[in-house]
Amino acid sequence: MLATLSSGLLLIVGVINALPAVGLISARHLGSLYGIGADEPNLHVLLAHRAVVLALTGGLILAAVSATGLRPLAYLFGLLSMLSFVSLCLAIADCNAELRRIMRIDIVASGLMLMALVIDVSAGLDP
Fold first, then answer.
1. Distances (CA, A) of 63 to 25, 47, 86, 91, 123
2. φ/ψ bin of 40: left (φ > 0), alpha (ψ from -120 to 50), beta (otherwise)
3. Is there a contact between 17 and 109 (Cβ–Cβ < 8 Å)?
4. Within its chain, how far is the Cα of 74 from the centroid?
5. What is the pLDDT of residues 7-47, one digit of tens each?
6. Distance CA 72, CA 84 (A)
7. Counts for the chain of helices (H) and strands (E), in that order
8. Other beta carbons within 10 Å of 14
9. pTM of the full predicted structure?
10. Are the beta carbons of 111 and 78 closer than 8 angstroms?
């Protein structure tokens, strides 16, 4: 039961992390994710790279749902990714509403991931 709950939490967090890959469709899609215009080519490259990195992070977390040996790495990369974004948003006082929305999502997803980690540790899994 606990293993299923842990896996379910990781599934949710993995999907949340992988979703920004949808922005790779176009600069307009990328910009809409963050509430900014991404028509400038250099900004587009940066946002596209962010989408790829998040897709890879989400993919790792999703793989860790069934491949429990990947969980330590998934916990590390997932939490570092989300909490670093939260820290950056908090450090920059004038983040726009979209970035603050993403920050709140990352806070919730980090909490879910921490819950999964606690469940895995308490169940004797080796995260």
1. 24, 24, 24, 32, 20
2. beta
3. yes
4. 10
5. 999 999 999 999 988 888 877 777 777 777 767 788 888 88
6. 18
7. 5, 0
8. 23
9. 0.89
10. no
